[in-house]
Amino acid sequence: MNYENILSEISGGVAVITINRPDKLNALNKATIQELHNAFKEFDADKNVRVIIITGSGEKAFVAGADIAEFANFSVEEGGQLAAKGQEILFDLVQNLSTPVIAAINGFALGGGLELAMAAHFRIASDNAKMGLPEVSLGVIPGYGGTQRLPQLVGKGRAMEMIMTAGMINAEDAKSYGLVNHVVPQTELLEFCKGIAAKIIKNSPVAIGKAIKAINANYEDGVNGYKEEIKAFGESFGTEDFKEGTTAFLEKRKAEFPGK
């Protein structure tokens, strides 16, 4: 599929999606959000894709925020629709994909950019990365899940401070907060992410998808995460991946998971 605002490639079971609006510091507009939706859906449906990495083009920014010019004159109703649609077609979609998503934060991740990174299953940052939710400095609040996911990742107090001050934190602080898992030199970022992806690919894609669903269940209102885990655990016994994994273990050989 051809895109105007993103680049995509697949190699060795790893799909890399690159937001490609360097003149706008990769800011998210409606068209880019729709293209990202399409790309994530396409790769999630492709059985040859085992891990998705999302990053930004250039050396300055992952995503420097939303494209403010696009919504500066919105009404109350239009603002609500903007947040609802964006969360539905991209941010919630990414969080709930059965294919693992790694955010490779290669610079500024602000506003909607940090919200996109937080929707990924985990994050790795370059050493020059800066992260923040500056929306209150514009008279608005984070609208793509930032007020929910940031406290889950860094705790309520740190999230309150970051959102209220509209300030940025550097990569090392983000790591100490638990917002990112690793910090690496920018030139090594993508290869480092691919290295982790290679470790993921060795395991059962069916089991990984079930684990993602069970982990996410703990953060859903009205859902008992323990019950979801028990259900997914039991279902695993009926998969070909379970049969192959246990057989390979007993035969002392490397498992070749069929993904079924």
Description:
With 260 residues, the protein is of the alpha/beta class. It folds into two domains: 6-201, 2-enoyl-CoA Hydratase, Chain A, domain 1 (Alpha-Beta Complex); 205-250. The protein is 46% helix and 17% strand. The protein has helices at residues 30-45, 76-95, 112-119, 146-154, 156-165, 171-177, 189-201, 205-217, 225-236, 240-250; strands spanning 6-11, 14-19, 51-56, 61-63, 101-105, 108-110, 122-126, 130-132, 168-170, 182-184. The strands form two sheets. A six-stranded mixed β-sheet has the order 1-2-3-5-7-10. Strands 4-6-8-9 form a four-stranded mixed β-sheet. Strand 1 and strand 2 form a beta hairpin. Helix 3 (112-119) crosses helix 4 (146-154), helix 4 (146-154) crosses helix 5 and helix 8 packs antiparallel against helix 9.
| Helical content class | 40-55%
Count of helices?
10
How far apart lie the N and C ends?
26 Å
Order of strands, widest sheet: 1-2-3-5-7-10
Residue stretches low in confidence (pLDDT < 50, at least 5 long) are none
CATH architecture of the largest domain: Alpha-Beta Complex
Tell me the count of domains: 2
| CATH superfamily membership of the largest domain | 2-enoyl-CoA Hydratase, Chain A, domain 1
The ordered H/E elements are EEHEEHEEHEEHHEHEHHHH
| CATH structural class of the largest domain | Alpha Beta
How would you characterize the largest beta sheet? 6 strands, mixed
| β-strand amount | 15-25%
Mean pLDDT: 95
At the fold tier of CATH, the topology name of the largest domain is 2-enoyl-CoA Hydratase, Chain A, domain 1
Q: In terms of quaternary structure, what is this?
A: single chain
Using only CA atoms, what is the Rg? 19 Å
What is the structural class?
Answer: alpha/beta
